[in-house]
């Protein structure tokens, strides 16, 4: 894989991989070349065969995929949805969701059993988003894959990734008539119908009682519906739907990856886990509810999370396509060429990190400040992740509650097999054990 090559050739700033000997795909894996691409306004590669085209029938043209003036306008309109005052109101939801998650984990690991946490973490992060985005609560974690919305999102993600690896299904006409395509569009219709129903009902409620906004917590959908640009024009119903679907997809799967690897990292590094436990005990005392004001005091936990995202980048790479010739460290890349920022490779370069395979959170404190483009777990530049503070706060709440209640232990018979996909997974799951603290 392209990312594997980038990791092996850590002395390089640019890598090249030929797709079926037909055309080249480039990768950048050094701060000097990463900076050039991420600071540019080059669009996402959403043409047939590009890194994002299989998601478009589901996610539409939301922030993840759109570009140009549309992206600039909608990014401005969505920014208020991630203001600290809005995020603060979500913290009680994080606590409720992960109380359910921890109860499920206690049952799954009773008697010293090892368990694969990835699926359960993913259900929890999706549960969080449905509650925060749509104020939707329907026992998502309890029903698991049996829940129709959960099943639909999982199926759409799986088919979209699978289609990327099957060039014969890249043409839309062939994909639509394939068994995978029929299933994909069936579930996409279910998700779209669900979203549109919720959006329609919310618009009617807001129109009937304009004071409702001051009577309850605003969710993501409320803010999308009231957003207006400089001309007083808001988002269309289709744009609202695209942004809802984009945030539900991006926010739950990438956070599930990050949080799962952080839990695994705690299990493999007991000394660092003990530091986090002592900090959580000091900050929270006997309280099991993590308050907004306490999150910023969890500095040791934050360092652990940063280091985990360095070693296990939730999004291994992000892609762009050139619209004009780009100079990368003296190498001329012509227009209409795919270039990927190899985040996993960048975060594991020996010339940047010295000992990248060693889990060492204090590297983010004691080492001289690096080029800001040497560590980009949420991308960087104008298209950095708009929801990164949402994701980080959610994970900090989850990890604080976890270490307060359990000691996280490794499974001695397990080693992960990295799967560098849209998000970083493990081909054999992510397994740990839990021991309840006295």
From TrEMBL:
Xref: Gene3D superfamilies: Cytochrome P450
Co-factor requirement: heme
Protein name (record): Cytochrome P450 4F4
Family classification: Belongs to the cytochrome P450 family.
PROSITE patterns assigned to the protein according to its UniProt record, in alphabetical order: CYTOCHROME_P450
Keywords of the record: Heme, Iron, Metal-binding, Monooxygenase, Oxidoreductase
Binding site for heme: 385
InterPro entries: Cyt_P450, Cyt_P450_CS, Cyt_P450_E_grp-I, Cyt_P450_sf, Cytochrome_P450_Monoox
Superkingdom assignment: Eukaryota
GO MF term set: heme binding; iron ion binding; monooxygenase activity; oxidoreductase activity, acting on paired donors, with incorporation or reduction of molecular oxygen
PANTHER family for this protein: CYTOCHROME P450 FAMILY 4 (PTHR24291), CYTOCHROME P450, FAMILY 4, SUBFAMILY B, POLYPEPTIDE 7 (PTHR24291:SF201)
């Amino acid at each position: 894989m392209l990312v594997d090559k980038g990791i092996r050739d850590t002395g390089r700033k640019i890598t090249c991989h030929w797709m079926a000997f037909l055309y080249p795909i480039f990768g950048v894996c050094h701060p000097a070349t990463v900076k050039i691409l991420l600071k540019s306004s080059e669009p996402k590669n959403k043409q047939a065969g590009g890194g994002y085209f299989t998601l478009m029938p589901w996610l539409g043209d939301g922030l993840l995929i759109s570009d140009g003036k549309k992206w600039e306008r909608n990014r401005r309109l969505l920014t208020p949805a991630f203001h600290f005052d809005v995020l603060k109101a979500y913290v009680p939801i994080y606590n409720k969701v992960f109380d359910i998650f921890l109860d499920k984990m206690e049952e799954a690991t009773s008697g010293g059993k090892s368990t694969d946490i990835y699926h359960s973490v993913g259900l929890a992060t999706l549960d969080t988003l449905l509650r925060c985005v749509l104020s939707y609560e329907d026992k998502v974690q309890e029903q698991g894959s049996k829940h129709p919305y959960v099943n639909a999102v999982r199926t759409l993600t799986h088919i979209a990734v699978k289609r990327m690896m099957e060039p014969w299904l890249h043409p839309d006409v062939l994909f639509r008539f394939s068994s995978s395509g029929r299933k994909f569009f069936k579930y996409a219709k279910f998700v779209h119908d669900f979203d549109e129903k919720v959006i329609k009902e919310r618009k009617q409620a807001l129109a009937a009682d304009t004071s409702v906004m001051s009577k309850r917590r605003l969710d993501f959908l409320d803010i999308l519906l009231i957003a207006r640009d400089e001309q007083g024009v808001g988002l269309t119903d289709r744009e609202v739907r695209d942004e809802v679907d984009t945030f539900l997809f991006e926010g739950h799967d990438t956070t599930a990856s990050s949080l799962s690897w952080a839990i695994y990292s705690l299990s493999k590094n007991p000394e660092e886990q003990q530091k986090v436990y002592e900090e959580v005990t000091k900050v929270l005392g006997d309280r099991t509810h993590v308050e907004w004001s306490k999150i910023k005091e969890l500095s040791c936990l934050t360092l652990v999370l940063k280091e985990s995202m360095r070693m296990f980048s939730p999004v291994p790479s992000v892609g762009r396509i050139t619209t004009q010739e780009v100079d990368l460290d003296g190498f001329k890349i012509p227009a209409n060429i795919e270039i990927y920022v190899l985040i996993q490779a960048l975060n594991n370069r020996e010339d940047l990190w010295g000992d990248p395979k060693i889990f060492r959170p204090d590297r983010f404190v004691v080492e001289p400040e690096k080029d800001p483009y040497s560590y980009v777990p949420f991308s960087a530049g104008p298209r950095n992740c708009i929801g990164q503070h949402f994701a980080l706060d959610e994970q900090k709440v989850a990890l604080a509650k976890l270490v307060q209640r359990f000691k996280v232990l490794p499974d001695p018979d397990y080693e992960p097999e990295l799967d560098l996909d849209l998000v970083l997974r493990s081909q054999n799951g992510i397994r740990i054990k839990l021991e309840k603290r006295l």
